[in-house]
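Anyone up for a design puzzle?
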């Protein structure tokens, strides 16, 4: 014989109430377990999402640091290159100036040498003309002296 709880309580209404309460308790327990499982799943998903977000943030921060360092290095390189090019332009200008000054000085030396040769040649020509004039005067004086000597004898 099967033992029924509703029969042992004495009345069918009491058995039904007990069954209802038992079913309600089991339903609450099963729903409570489902809620606890859902809460646990939500917590696990939340922790996983936070860890993933933290990992992504760390990776992004490291990449930002790398990008910032690369940008700084490149901007520093570009600045140094710009300064180098400015210095090169300045050196070229100074070289042009120095070259122009040297060329002008060289031209001055050449003109001075040319002038010196001209004046040396002019002086040599003047001396030669003076020598010819003196020679001519000497010849004239010699002829006059000889003429005076012939007449005086």
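Challenge accepted. My sequence:
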């Amino acid at each position: 014989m099967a033992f029924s709880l509703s029969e042992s309580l004495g009345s069918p209404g009491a058995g039904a109430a007990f069954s209802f309460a038992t079913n309600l308790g089991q339903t609450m327990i099963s729903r409570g377990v489902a809620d606890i499982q859902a809460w646990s799943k939500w917590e696990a998903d939340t922790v996983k999402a936070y860890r993933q977000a933290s990992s992504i943030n760390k990776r992004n921060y490291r990449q930002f640091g790398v990008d910032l360092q690369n940008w700084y290095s490149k901007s520093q390189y570009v600045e140094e290159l710009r300064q180098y090019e400015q210095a090169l332009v300045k050196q070229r200008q100074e070289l042009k100036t120095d070259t122009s000054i040297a060329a002008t000085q060289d031209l001055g030396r050449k003109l001075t040498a040319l002038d010196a040769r001209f004046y040396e040649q002019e002086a040599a020509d003047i001396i030669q003309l003076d020598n010819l004039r003196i020679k001519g005067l000497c010849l004239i004086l010699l002829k006059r002296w000889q003429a005076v000597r012939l007449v005086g004898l």
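A detail worth pointing out: DSSP finds two helices and no strands in the chain.
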